[in-house]
Every structure is written in structure tokens, then in C-alpha cells.
Amino acid sequence: MAALLTVSRCCRRSQIRRFSTALRGLERAGPGGRSSVSGLTVTIFGATGFVGRYVVNRMGRMGSQIVLPFRCDEHDTRHLRVMGDLGQIYFRPYHLLDIDRIRDLVKYSNVVVNLVGRDYETSNFSYYDLHVLGAARIAQACKDMEVERLVHFSAYNASYSSPSPFMVSKKQGEDTVREIFPDVTILKPSDIYGLEDRFLMYYAGISKYIKIVPLIKMGKHVHKIPIFVSDVASAVEKCVVDRDTMGRTYYLCGPEKYLYYDLVDYIFRCVNRPFRPFSIPQSIFNIFGLMNELWPFYRYVTRDKITRMTLSEDFHTDKLGIKDLGVEATKFSDVAVRFLRHYRKFEGSVDPIDEIGPLHKAKA
Ligand SMILES: NC(=O)c1ccc[n+]([C@@H]2O[C@H](COP(=O)([O-])OP(=O)(O)OC[C@H]3O[C@@H](n4cnc5c(N)ncnc54)[C@H](OP(=O)(O)O)[C@@H]3O)[C@@H](O)[C@H]2O)c1
């Protein structure tokens, strides 16, 4: 009986494979655009997050069929519904650690993008669960269902020697995924900014409520190379269509490096509020982080996030970068004010945006 069951399961799996292989190779049709057929069926994990909405839009815009696994309330995915042509986006609930469900979600896709991640740990999911176990399940399911391409998101400063548990888990995740699915394309973005980010909006948000800004060592020893979210989406688009990116790792960062102090100063200038920084020792800042970690809802500052604020980002000229994907990275000062001016006081929101003053580049 057990042998019979195993045989029937194997037959079912091979049937599914034959069926899905037939579906995967849809002919390209149309001039390109939402109502065309790109020939791609893409499953995007973590689409409900910040970067997800931009990636889904790019995939929809080229006429792909999109499978969107989600774990939240159905209404949290509403904004994604309009990003593809009618009937081209399929929403499916799932659990990240349920590999059978994940196999179901990727079995008809030729491309899978994994954007799952979280800035803080919760009582249900540790960094290890998300960035290593979850990523491994997705990679394993892709391997089992013979998915052609996998694009996995890590982080710019991911390293085993990092003082940040987030960065260590991202590095572990990268290596685990590469071991299971050697052809994976790994993208390692620096701090990503955009309308819904957690970088600009953190400072712009607190600028309304606090008179003085706590910065570790005044932010004068840390450099950042933030990248625009649209550039990250362009990089994903390129990875999805270009087979040469298979098996490679790309470090995605902006074109200019800035001192952390200068960046925060610029953000305050954009929102038209006085910038009064004060130097706070990391140990004291960590107490705020710890208090915020006990908060059951969204955690704006955690001890790990504070550690990540102190990690400098440097250009890696010896590694593949965003230029190798044919994407021209946008300058921070060219676009940041577009999002930040919404945080100005009502009378200030009509002030001209060219009176902000320059944002100085740090030495390379
Ligand atoms: N934003 C940055 O500055 C930055 C920088 C470097 C690297 N990255 C990496 O880039 C990727 C995308 O970043 P992002 O800013 O878009 O992240 P995000 O806004 O935090 O979104 C993360 C996504 O992961 C999903 N997720 C989190 N925990 C989950 C769980 N336990 N089970 C299933 N899904 C879960 C979220 O779903 P829910 O909506 O249901 O919570 C959401 O869709 C992440 O891997 C992130 O670590 C981001």
C-alpha cells in the first residue's frame, strides 16, 4: 500500500512538472506593456513590503503573469492588484516555513524573486527563521520544481563578522541559498530610499516631534551609499530577463557616498525644520532600542538597527555592481526632496525646492 502511494505521488509530481513546463514556456506576444505577454511567470515572495510594490509593478508592466504569496490581511495586497493586466496577478496565502505550499506556489513559474526579510525579530520569527530557514525553503522548492531562475535579496554589509545579527543571518542565508540553488542571482542592496522607506522617513517622521536629533558620535564616522528603490527594481527587472546574471552576486549602491551627519542634515533641510544634532553614546541609545523592542507593534528603533546605523558602507570596485546590470544609479540629492517635502509644514510645502542647498559627497 505504501509503495502504491509513493508511486502515485511520484506520478502526480511528474504530471505537474510536465504540465508546468508546458505552461512556463508561454510565447512572447504584443509590443511589450501590461497587456502583452512577456513569456514569464514570476512568483514574488515578500511583495507586500517596501521594495515589493516596485518589483511587482515592473513585472506587471512587462506583461508577466505574477503569483503573489502573502500572509497578511487580504486588504493589505489591494495596491498590488492594479499593477498587472486583468487576471494576471494571482494572490495566494502561505506560510514561509511550509515547503509543500511553497512548491505549489512556484510550480508554474519560470522565475522566483525572494524579497522576504524583516528589520527586527518577533516572537514568531527570528532572523534565522526568515533569512536562513525561509530562504532555504524557497530555494529548495525552486530546485524541486525545476524553476529556471531565482533572485534572492541579501544586504550590502552582510558578513559573518558583522556586529549586527541581521547582517550575519543575511550572509548565512546567501550561502545556504547558493548551496541549494547554485544558479541563484544574489542582490545585495545598501540602504534603500523611496516614498515608503524606513531610512528617510524615519528622520522625516521624527523631525515633526523632536527638537534635537540623537546621532551616535554625531554621525561623523559613518558613511552611507543609499540607493533609490526604482534603481533596485530596474536591477531586478534586468536579472529576470538576462540569463547572464545567473549564478552571480551584485552589490547595489548609489553613485555617491555621504557622511551620515550630512545625510541627516540634508533630510532636515528638505523638510524645512531646524537640525539640532547631539552626540549620544551607543549604550544609551540602546536603552531606547530595548524599550522599543518590547513594543508589540512596528519597531522603529531596535538595538540591531542602531548597530546597523553605525556600519559604514564602502564602494566595492572589485565586485559586480549596479552598473554591470546596465542601470545608471540615481543621485540622492536629485530625488530625495520629492518624497521629503510632504513632511514640511503646510506653509513650507510650497517653498521652492532648489533652495535646499547642496549635499556634500564624502571622499571615496
Ligand atoms: N529596505 C532596505 O533598506 C533594505 C536594505 C538592504 C536589504 N534589504 C532586503 O531587501 C528585501 C526587501 O526589503 P523591504 O524593505 O521591501 O522589506 P520589508 O518592507 O520589511 O518587506 C518584507 C517582506 O517580507 C515579508 N515577511 C516578513 N516576515 C515574514 C514572514 N515571517 N513570513 C512571510 N513573509 C514575511 C513581509 O510580509 P508582511 O507584509 O506580511 O509583513 C514583506 O512582504 C528584504 O530581504 C530586506 O532585508 C532591504
Automatic annotation (TrEMBL):
Please give one Gene Ontology molecular function term for this protein: protein-containing complex binding
UniProt domain NAD-dependent epimerase/dehydratase: residue ranges: 42-165
InterPro entries assigned to the protein according to its UniProt record, in alphabetical order: ComplexI_NDUFA9_subunit, Epimerase_deHydtase, NAD(P)-bd_dom_sf
Q: Name one GO cellular component term.
A: mitochondrion
> Could you give the subunit structure recorded for this chain?
Complex I is composed of 45 different subunits. This a component of the hydrophobic protein fraction. Interacts with BLOC1S1. Interacts with SLC2A4. Interacts with CLOCK. Interacts with RAB5IF.
Q: Which family does it belong to?
A: Belongs to the complex I NDUFA9 subunit family.
What name goes with this protein? NADH dehydrogenase [ubiquinone] 1 alpha subcomplex subunit 9, mitochondrial
Name its species: Oopsacas minuta
